[in-house]
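Board notes (copied after class):
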Amino acid sequence: MKKAEQPPRTAWATSEPLDATQVIKGIVAAVPAALAELGEEQRVGGTSSALPQAVRTAVIAEFRTRAQFVGRLCEIDALLHTQGVSTAVLDAMTEHLGQLQLRRVTDPEAQELFVVTEGQGEYFEILRPAYVDEATGKLALAGQLRRMAVAGNEADGAEAGK
């Protein structure tokens, strides 16, 4: 079983928070559209809840956009892993994921982040890494494991995750 190298866990923990300026710009840009979607009576009728409702809608839309972007990026990275691309490409993606506060998990010990898809036995082989959005603390993309009767690298003397 091949494991991608990752920065130490502390590197993720010390990363900067989401770029607030970028998030706020996205929200501000979405407020006019959110106001337009509100009924005419809410906007003109003097209701004080129109602007907060529009901002709330814009915030939700901005984070939905991030979630969609994160999901796509994780799918691309997972595809690169299954295709066996060069170390340089994987290192570049690891750096990019880190800048976006996404953590690629390639340790089968974190079974709560994976779905076991097939196989039998007590060892696991990673078919697809799992991804955690460190900015939100949520699972961005579940990984996939396959059960195996023997350790993946048993011939080399190394043992796969149990």
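Comment from the instructor: The beta strands are 102-105, 114-119, 123-128, 130-133, 138-141, 143-148. Helices lie at 9-13, 20-37, 40-44, 50-83, 87-99.
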